Amino acid sequence: MATCPTVRDLHGAFEPNTADGDSPSLFSTVPPHRDDPRQVPSPPEPAARRVGIARLAALSPQADAKRGAEYFLLPAQSILNRCDSERVPFPWTVNPYRGCEFGCHYCFARYTHEFMELDGSEFESKIFVKRDAGGLAARDLLSKGLRGEHIAIGAATDPYQPAEKEFGATRAVLEEMARRRGLSVSITTKSNLIVRDIELLKRIAERSSLRVNMTITTLRMGLARLLEPRAPRPDLRIAALRALRDAGIEAGVLAMPILPWLTDRPDDLDALARAVKEAGALWFAGNVLYLMPTPRRQFFAFLEKKFPRLVRRYAEWYARTGNAPESYSREIGRRVAELRDKYGLAARLPISQPAEGQASQLRLF
Q1: What radius of gyration, in Å, describes the C-alpha atoms of the chain?
Q2: Phi and psi at residue 213, in whole multiples of 5°?
Q3: pTM of this structure
Q4: Residues 6+ apart with CB under 8 A from 301
Q5: What is the pLDDT of residues 128-144, one digit of tens each?
Q6: Is 232 left (phi over 0), alpha (psi -120 to 50) or beta?
Q7: Cβ neighbours of residue 75 under 8 Å, at least 6 residues apart?
Q8: pLDDT tens by residue, 186-227
Q9: In sequence order, what are the residues at sequence separation of 6 or more whose Cβ sits closer than 8 angstroms to the Cβ of residue 175?
Q10: Domain range summary for the chain, segments of one domain joined by +
Q11: Which of 13, 120, 192, 316 could join 236 via S-S bond, C-beta 3.0 to 4.6 A?
Q12: What is the topology classification, in CATH, of domain 47-343?
């Protein structure tokens, strides 16, 4: 059985089970012939020498290449992955894609590409699409024995990244969920593409508990473009949030991660909380940047280029540990709590086990 990522507030460690067939695959130094879909890319070394995730990656056929990214079709044994970690508040995850085109420099999940013998810097250029996501969802939803347990979609990679326009893996999963009752589902994204599926989300919400977490780190357009090069602009995410709420879908905002000396200014956080409240958000949560070794290397290289004066400060805090000082984290927690009180926003909603056909209740943790 697959195990889930170990997530620290959706920005912590991600520990895939290398025995699981739902791992992403790698692509090749030699692209496949586009006129022969059976031909697979040639891995840097023979696929026979690889095992587990790396072998699946090396054998995944290339499906497309555009926008500076390559797309590979990954064989998967399941789409629902069981979480056995006490660190996360949900027992099941769904990540229809491995890798993410948004290319956020701080992304915690970059190191998952290393399990496929890929470099973490290729996280946004080597995208793996889980083959037959809808069929897998139909089977898993019947066989996993969920008993109303919560399913988190997009805990590691964005389910509405640009690849979704072509491959529709996320929509295929949601269509299967819309056929069932009594599920508890959340979606986390920073993409306005989610509005494409509003009617489908409404059908799910009529029968099950559904909530959407829109991730917004800053309202400053220039800074957002630097930190999250290919992600939709903050104003587009705000507009998507408003559209979701106008459609009656429970939705709120995760200001995650909050980056020291970049997105943590009190006025900026206040402006963000005010904007999401005006857009109808029900909740607002945030936590401080957490850096594991692979994303740390990527993020420090980014700082060297764009914010060299911050490198020493970040090194003092993050060179030996993935966490900012506890005193700083407590201060950010206090600021976020005060903003919730100021604008009448909740903390993130609790994971619930809904009665059949019943929407979730709005309660605080």
Answers
A1: 20
A2: -100, 115
A3: 0.82
A4: none
A5: 999 999 999 999 999 88
A6: beta
A7: 21, 25, 56, 59, 60, 131
A8: 999 999 999 999 999 999 999 999 999 999 999 999 999 999
A9: 134, 200
A10: 47-343
A11: 192
A12: TIM Barrel (3.20.20)
